[in-house]
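LOG
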Amino acid sequence: MEIVCLDLEGVLVPEIWIAFSEKTGIEELKITTRDEPDYHKLMAYRIGILRQHGLKLKDIQDVISGIKPLPGAYDFVMKLREMTQLAILSDTFTEFALPLMRQLDYPTILCNSLRVDDDDNIVDISMRAENGKKKAIEGFRHMGFRTFASGDSYNDIAMIREADGGCLFRAPANILNEEKDLELVTEYDDLLEAVRRFRDAE
């Protein structure tokens, strides 16, 4: 039995922090895991900017409430779930993810959580595990699953390489230049076909 593990932002939904940057006009918040491989450094940077501008968790959640899945993402998820099992492995947070999962018919998601003070300020993050995407792939393998993984950012590379099969999806040029041996697909139909080939090779 196989399980497909996908990143969330940039694969199924737009990048939350880019949407928030565009809403607030704060250019510094456009930096994502496509640009910065150190997730703790990236989140400390983001939290510092939020504090500087007096922005709270609710401000981000208000923007998320208006985010829609990427064009074609819902149909892709439905087709994929008819074909095999799906788990979304994301470094986003439970406080962000619920309205997005609702629009994708509630696939399973494993993600992190935020530490928020009594005034609704984001003060820190709580990771479910360091390098959690890779460890999730290892866990599925220990349970007897063959795993296929796909994502677009630095924090997806380890899970793709750990999985039995996988590819990059709409990754930026800087990652493609560094990970030349990984297959790239840019359309959902091609990603479905890659999963089919993986299943057929069992």
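LOG (cont.) second protein
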Amino acid sequence: MDGVLVHENHALPGASELIQQWLANGTEFLVLTNNSIYTPRDLAARLRASGLDVPEERIWTSANATAEFLRQQKPDGTAFVIGEAGTITALHEAGFTMTDHDPDFVVVGETRTYSFEAITQAIRLIAAGARFISTNPDATGPSRDGIMPATGAINALITKATGREPYIVGKPNPMMFRSALNQIGAHSEVTGMIGDRMDTDIVAGMEAGLHTVLVMTGISSRSSIVQYPFRPNEILEGVHELVNGDVG
């Protein structure tokens, strides 16, 4: 989503036209994001404010992927959550009950209101046997005043205290892409992935067997590509190059 369709709450060139092209052609698609703060409904509203009309059922977050993974692991399970509405709502919809008493899982998602008490409780529950799950590994996130600690930083704090590493469902875990494929009934051999980051989007798309397209409107640049031992299938200046065309 960020760096591909929008940048700083403004639609990128060609983004609106590409979304409308897919909708008009009946092309199955999902907009993916590692952001687990917001629900798909919230994100659809934010995208509309940016000038993009994306139905909420076309948005798949790391929280959605995490909830689907946990539903498969333990149907009707319980969880203690550090996170916002996006994570809690996704888990509720997957049939989970939120509790701080002997939960099956401790789930760490993105939040802007980290609580020392909640982190302490998470550490104690994991030490007592709860399985440690996280929505994404991003250690920092952007803000107007500079970088700020994100989910990965809290994961590291809990790992240091417990000696337990979390299982991370979001990018770069290819499981996020596989869960997205399942949502739209698509096969990897006929599906493309458009992303702006080599270290999360492209590597995960590649490992999930997708046709990978890197755009130059976000994090990665042409000069940074040489740092990685793998390459995307295509490199484009932006999604505007896909309007009235197709990926691959």
